[in-house]
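INFO  loader      accepted 1 record
INFO  loader      residues=922
INFO  predictor   begin
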Amino acid sequence: MSTADPAALAEHFERLADLKPAAREAALGALEPQLAARLRRLFAAESSDHDPIAAAIAAAAGAPLPHTGQRLGAWRIVREIGSGGMGTVFLAERADEQFTQQAAIKLIRGFATEDGRRRLRQERQILAGLDHPNIARLLDGGETHDGQPWVAMEYVEGRELLDHVAQQRLDLDARLQLFDRIAAAVQHAHQRLVVHRDLKPRNVLVRADGEPRLLDFGVAKLVDLGADTGGRDTSTRVWTPGYASPEQRRGAAVTTVTDVFSLGIMLRELLTGDRSEHAAAQGLPDGFEALAPDADLRGAITKASAEDPAQRYASVEALRDDLRRYRDHRPLRAARDTAWYRARKFVFRHRLASGLALAATVALGLFIWRLDAERERAVAAELAAQTSSAAAQRSADNANHTLRFVIGVFQGASPESTLGRTVTPRMLVDDARARLDTEVGDDPQVRRTLQAALGQIYSDLGEPRRASELLRSATDGFEPVDRSEGLWLAGAVDVLSDALLAIAPDGVAQSATVRAAELFEQWAGSDPEMILRAANSRAQAAYLRGDMAETIARQREVLALARNLPSTPPNTVFGARMVLADALRATGDLAAAEQETAALLIDVERELPELHPRTIKVMRVRAAILGELGRYRDAEVLFRTGLERIERLVGSDNQSTADFLNDLSVMLSAAGRYREALDALQQSRAIERQLGASEASASAVVLANLASLQENVGEYEQAVANAARALELLAASSTTESAHLRKVEGNLARALSFAGRHAESRALFEKVRAQHKAAGEPRAFDYAMETFRQGSAERLAGRLDAASALFDESMPALTTALGEAHPVIAFLKRQRGHLAIERGDYALARSELTAAREILVNTDASAFDLAFVDLSLATLAARQGDPANARRLLATVLPPLRENVGPKQVNRVEAEQLARELGLRM
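INFO  predictor   done
INFO  writer      dumping tokens
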């Protein structure tokens, strides 16, 4: 193209006129040097205050550009705010003093004939009728005294579209919602036979409240009319390269699908930052994140921006409808319509219900398939040796029964059967369980196989009681006659032991675990996976005996064996890592337990769906460990997330929810949030009762936690009663070496101390400490904790020397296990500080209490925990003759104590007594 060609100059000038200086210069740099030089001179001339061309035109028309203060109709010019292909734009304000209002006034380039002015007035009237919240309204219009047209548009303060997206860092859904509001504005105009003709991101401003305003609606046509095109519905003068449709660029007729094209280009740029090959080079705003639309969204963009108008969406409404379908995960009209495509969209639209149903059904099918496959292989081997046609027929019958059952479950979950009802895994498995009695018949082998499979799924879904019922029915009285049946029984008993452990870590669970280990060892042969499962069961049996040192050693052996297998069995490895983490936690190695659960949570979240039961189980254990580390906020987030996922997975009335609430209660209690803790525990107990929990199982744990809470709030006699009952229940179902039993005994000893029964407390503490000490290293942490707790009891009893010795003994072990900055160390220092006050060693008291407070502040402790330390500091200030400081500290101590504990709680009693002595009234 020749640089002397006026058409070429005009095309490039119009294309670059609206660009910002930096973007315009970048675009000029890509052109032929001579052409770029001529264009620079033209732009320089246009922007010059002494442009001879503009002066000549103005002189010829007798119409200089408006200046600040000049009136146009009811408006007064404030300042120029821009110029471009459509003319010059001024900020104006109302000058008739009727009301305060601002407007953007555009001077329409060109001077129409009398007929053109008439059409201009008609078009302005049409545009003024556009009433949509996302369209900048046309407020007024007219001509200058010399006949130049102008329009006053609503003045919008906001960011350009892409700048808003970059600044707010909008995700895909937010961008599509924003685009829908823009498209709705265009659709509103089309319904009134108004075409925009110049849709582009720069013509959209987004206000501070996130609402877009579409500018310059219909102004392009006014420009054409101002140029007196004779009324032709074309757009030969005003359009923006890159956004203009092919028919606009050719000067052909403009229709509503012209705007559809521009919307398609805008949508692509809004999502990806990509512009049309016809667009001028222009950088994206800082912070703009390009997204990668999937095939469906790319198809919608392609259809909207098709070169051939006949291939585009027929209307903006059709485009919006497809984008709504996309956001609702329904099939798009722009996509190739196939049965598979519609099925895929249906599943994703109902991804939670479909996914859970499919997961449960597939789990059921795979479990049955695996068990049946093992059985088939074993039977095949027997057939080879015995050539028994009867055995072959029996195996075939079993397989057919199982297949028909699984098909029935799938049919029950189909849309035709559910009639739109959301199917959850719980509903699906409950239905399968009901089908056992009506569809399986009397074949005991098929029934046992399906009972074990359903028991496994109930266990995974956090329903250990239902799981244990099915698994007991499947395994009770069954005597295997060959290796295949022996391994099947070992696997079923192994799952039963997990379910029983989830209900209560008692002798029943331990017996099942030992039996599983014996069966695996009996029938494993040389199968490395079965040997691994046997080793894992032995490790779990050690865990249930309370031998944490053996548990840790055995579980590490299990994980080493698993690494040497060709394919790692996920269930066994997961269970081993979970028990290992809990054993590390029980020995006081919280740092190692935290690291193990952190790595395990990363692994399961990477490998499994969000709602997978294993992920939720890891969250619970990790949250409990974080709570023990004093990271209460992190722990609460995990607890709340886990509870929300359980609700989505199987509802709220299940054992998993009860367990989560129980552990959440323990954490909240440790954080000093006793009322919230009590509420969580009461919810847990309500679910336990609804599920029919026996008092001798899970209720023992809940009773023990309730006793601890009652002790914390000062209900000491109730705490003693509940702790004693929990101990009685556990003693009836646990071995004498149970770590859980020892922990509840320690809790009872502490409650007895607060209740003033010091001799009983001391005797029980000595018993517990002796048993922990006899166990040696595996119970070293437990021994140190009980030593600290007995020291606190002895201080309360007034035996200061004994308390001091116990504190000194416990400090090194606790510091080694927990680190020097753990809240437990702060509580120990507080006890030592209070002891120093009672001995009159005020310097030591201040040192210990100051260190305790610093630890709690640095660990983001609650106001309640800080209140204990500040109470001791207030007592110290009073003893040192500083009542003003004591009163100041008490003023911060009393509110959290009164809010969280009862009037008989020992710290509150001390605080209230000190307040009375100091004359502090609150």
